[in-house]
Amino acid sequence: MLVLYGGSALTPHNQKKLLQATESAFDRIEAVYFYLIQTKDGYHVSSNDLRPILSDLQPDEFRPSGPQVAFVFPRTGTISPWSSKATNIANVCNLKGVNRIERGIAYSVTCKQGLSENIYENAFSNLFDRMTETLRYEPPKEEEVFNTQEPAPLVTIKLGCNQEADKENAKRRLAEANVKFGLALASDEIDYLVECYANEPSLQHREPTDVELFMFGQVNSEHCRHKIFNADWTIDGNKMENSLFQMIRNTHKLNPHHTISAYSDNAAVFEGNAGSNFFPMNGEWTLKDETVDFLGKVETHNHPTAVSPYPGAATGSGGEIRDEGAVGQGSKPKAGLAGYNVSDLHIPGFKQPWELEVGKPFHIASPLDIMLSAPIGSSSFNNEFGRPCINGYFRTLTMEVTRSDGTTEYRGYHKPIMAAGGVGCIRRQHAFKKSISAGSPIIVLGGPALLVGLGGGAASSMNSGEGSEDLDFASVQRGNPEMQRRAQMVIDTCTAMEDNIIQSIHDVGAGGVSNALPELVHDAGLGARFELRDIPCIEPSMSPMQIWCCESQERYVLSVKSEDLDLFTSICERERCPYGVVGYATEEQRLVLTDRLYKSTPIDLPMEVLFGKPPKMSRVDNTDPLVLKKFDSSLNAYIPTVDQPITDAVQRVLRMPAVASKSFLITIGDRSITGLVAREQMVGPWQTPVADVAVTVTSYGKGTTTGEAFAVGEKPITALISSAASARMAVAECIMNMAAASLPHLSHIRLSANWMSSPTHSGEGAKLYEAVQAIGLDLCPQLGISIPVGKDSMSMSMKWMEDSREQSVTAPLSLVITGFSSVNNVESIWTPQLKRANEIGPSSLLYIDLANGKQRLGGSILAQCYKELGDEAPDVEDVELLKSYFSAITQLHTTDYVQAYHDNSDGGLFVTVSEMAFAGRVGVVSDLENFSNDNIATLFNEELGAVIQIRDSDFESVYEIFKAHGLGKAVKKFGKVISNEAQEVVFVRSSEIVYKSTRAALQSLWHETSYKMQSIRDNPKCAQQEYETIWDNSDPGIDFHLTFEHSPKSDLSLTNRPKVAVLREQGVNGHMEMAYSFHAAGFTPVDVHMTDIINGKLTLDMFVGIAACGGFSYGDVLGSANGWATSILLHDTARQEFYKFFNQRKDTFAIGLCNGCQLFTRLKTLIPGAQCWPLFLSNESSQYEGRTVMLQLDPRNSASSIFTNEMGGSRIPIAVAHGEGRAVFESDSDYTKFKQEGLDVLYYVDNYGNRTSQYPLNPNGSTDAIAGVRSPCGRFLAMMPHPERVVLKVANSYYPKSCSENWGTHGPWLRLFQSARKWVG
């Protein structure tokens, strides 16, 4: 093993942050990377060989210095995602002797003297994640990193149940194994297994293996089988007529229309719109007109996120993405959402008056740590895979309540909720799985087996604290999104075929292949024979049980016909995606797993034993309501000495995480990838995170005016008062959010219901049943909508021992409703952005009251702010009124009357109006005269309703529409939009001021929680700069300032379409929007993978242009695009191809966007005149940045580029999405030459048009605000922002309404690509 040291592992910001976390024990801390290189037998590799790919290597003799050095490296027996990709790069770069490269961090610390061992231990614990890493005080030994141990053996569990008298002993032994292995078997399942091994003829004469038992535990876990939802229920002594699942299915039984597939696959499939599928056919990107159906799914990953937030949330999103890709014969993820529930945050230096400190188990992450790490994990997976995350929610709760017996308990989210969901698309002919024929090859596609995620399905089925700490850690997986992207590219290639070669596909999730493979063949009514050693596996010491049952991520199982196997193999090899033909389907319904290494048979079971029916679960519970007391809406009972209770309430409510800005959760995510996002969270010219609904465009081509919408509704605190009301209000809130999009009809909405509960807690089972009944039998059937998909997590309690006493925190019943629907007009999406008088003339606000004047405060944010619950919660008062409201809204979407829309929800009317003012940077005067006399109840109740802005001239027309639908009495005209400089937000009654502030002051309160979290997590200097932008009332916001005419007529209509290579490497994910941009501009885009060039299948001589796409090539493990660039520079064939293209031809052009830009700047030795280009390195914020910013095209230098020569002087909003976009020159002389030659063609400007270094207007701290560079010849352009993602007009996060009328389908960035087409001639 070769050990080499690299450069600094800490940015100055991260170093400071780490020193603050360890200041009790350390005076100094520094860190460098170290690399561990294992070579194959007979090969010698030196540091000089490795330096081209490990560019930060120190001299060989370097060693970290300091009084104490701590070495952090991956846990023994694991392989990091970094290692997988770095090793891959080495092999592509002809370093064939490298078996594996691993990376660690060496920390040099100076410890304070005279402290206890406990203090030192706690300080060192901040240096590593004990879930995935190991810390040692000496360099690791080879066997600790590169596991060379012999494979662990098969284990047999001696039950001895062949005789009737031995059955009780067998049950006892199996119960012991149940605890040891964390199988989560119920007592009746233990009885069932003992009977099977005693009486099943083929099992009678042998003992079960650990593989069989572990598999059974996963396949039959609550997580996989949903036993509680299928159970019989007895409530208060009365046997209930229906199971929970029967009540859910009732909704689909009554209203199956618009649903293609329900309850039978990884996601539900819904009827979509006419559109076009855009994919490579014979290599050329082609639009094929056909119906584009869509699918929806929401999952949760609660337990892993509690144990290890980053990988837990990352694999939560990754698993749900796989669900979207493994429907029918194969499908495609499109856009996602993420939601979080945790207990109180306790932000250091920002303690809030409602927060309670109740302790937690040692090995479970704190709510603060979860919210600092889990969203990064989820976003990173989405970003790297290439799925925009465009919706979500965030809620905190820790509350002490009184039970009916007078005792108190804590309710909250120590067991967090991490929800991941979204939409995908699927071709109609692929919506259902085809039958598998006997003899068909069964394939595992994707990542190899790893020693991670053992027993995740079972662990997630237990209340936290019931299993051991070791089992909790073992159950968490690790993510490798770049691998999942590779697998998805294989699926995409197959689904683009006229005759898809995939017969049936499943994702690999809970239970690993031990669940997925049997399920695949069982669904086809078949059995199978598998060979254990054919499962791709890169950890040689794994036992048969570990290989079969581990939950290694990024895997799918599928079947193809024997005659299609060679074709499938060639697709995998092109994408460099691992796969293994692990077995074959059999007519005999028996599951057999052989192991040629040990010449054993770890599994030999009839399928009916594995999928048989252990005794049906029966649940018994009684209603056990809490002791409730009325909430004092005067607030005198809670703050008797405060003179201005409304002011106090405002300060608390706006800082509550459920209400406060979610910016710190949003900007870390890519929300523009695919170029098909019509509505994400950020709204208006000032990019305020207040959108009600997420909307995607159906497709490129024919589908650019229609789309899909999804939105969330959840009201868990209300469930502590009434679970039925909570469920109904969750559905209603979702509908109110969906109303912001133009939907065909209420009946098109389909729901996902995700149920989180702890039904073993007294009274919670009864609450669960009541809630399911409320929407399954009552509300949804009345509304005419169905729930064709969902999930449950029935272990929402956290228990631990503290001072020899058992402590617990139990979550309230938490129903997360996600609505999905087709959209008939993506240009009619209402946002909360209030329009100014100079835009629309005088305007007013209307409140649409759907609660018949009720103003209940129970379960409200206001009550929570004062540590109260209340006794009466909002509810759906009139179902017919809600239906009529939606009909009126649907009609209004066909007009231009509604200028802004926001539903009344968390925080009530005060928050609704305030958020609308934030988005529009305006003042508002609201008159409360037409509401009840209780000002606080009026301002902060969360009853069903919405606020809309209309022109004063349109009031009668709007009122008549509502009146015609029976809502005349529900309409209250109450507010005026004021476009004054002060931007005052005022509430009055009878001409007297009830409350007065300014938009900026209120928005700073609202943003403060996000700002504090951002300051801890990211560079605090950047967080401060963003916070300060709130106070500039004169800020004109982003807008379009074009120096060229852009209209539908400017779209080129050409018959000759020159070929452009849409170039990608493994991990690249921005290829589709790049291809469409060139297609729309008159080119023929051709899909070119680097393997095509390296293997000599294609030559760049075929193309007039190269388009290097955005994404995460090789996961950017060696620096953004460094692996991609190195694989070109160190490969003779590839290097020569690119050299010829850039240097020996004068008829070529090239553009590199984002990762492609980073590629070109690392290939500058091949590009004429590019030697002075900067590199693009880590953002100044130390964070991934997904933003819409203003870009200036240099008035002079733009003329010298074939791409921008018609756009000089324009200032245009554009999407950015990168973690490494800061332009840094390698020398002062490079910068001087760069400027002298006028190569900085694109740069970031503020909203006033000035070059800027202010964050986030300059999102990365780039030198001189540089965003893009050109070559001296003008034919080659590299830029970090994404013009290709906003080529569709509706894909721009904001554009003025006037543009909607003049531009047609495309936005002005199309001109960049059209100019290149004109140059080609």
From TrEMBL:
Gene3D superfamilies: 3.40.50.880, Phosphoribosylformylglycinamidine synthase, linker domain (1.10.8.750), PurM-like C-terminal domain (3.90.650.10), PurM-like, N-terminal domain (3.30.1330.10)
Domain spans labelled FGAR-AT PurM N-terminal-like: 661-821
EC nos: 6.3.5.3
Entry-linked InterPro entries: Class_I_gatase-like, FGAR-AT_N, FGAR-AT_PurM_N-like, PurL_large, PurL_linker, PurM-like_C_dom, PurM-like_C_sf, PurM-like_N_sf
Reactions mediated catalytically: N(2)-formyl-N(1)-(5-phospho-beta-D-ribosyl)glycinamide + L-glutamine + ATP + H2O = 2-formamido-N(1)-(5-O-phospho-beta-D-ribosyl)acetamidine + L-glutamate + ADP + phosphate + H(+)
Residues of the Phosphoribosylformylglycinamidine synthase linker domain: 174-227
First-level EC class: ligase
Entry's Gene Ontology cellular component terms: cytoplasm
GO biological process: 'de novo' IMP biosynthetic process
Recorded GO MF terms: ATP binding; metal ion binding; phosphoribosylformylglycinamidine synthase activity
Metabolic or biological pathway: Purine metabolism; IMP biosynthesis via de novo pathway; 5-amino-1-(5-phospho-D-ribosyl)imidazole from N(2)-formyl-N(1)-(5-phospho-D-ribosyl)glycinamide: step 1/2
Domain Phosphoribosylformylglycinamidine synthase N-terminal: 33-146
Pfam families per UniProt: AIRS_C, FGAR-AT_linker, FGAR-AT_N, FGAR-AT_PurM_N-like, GATase_5
Family: In the N-terminal section; belongs to the FGAMS family.
Entry protein name: Phosphoribosylformylglycinamidine synthase
Lineage of the species this protein comes from: Eukaryota, Fungi, Dikarya, Ascomycota, Taphrinomycotina
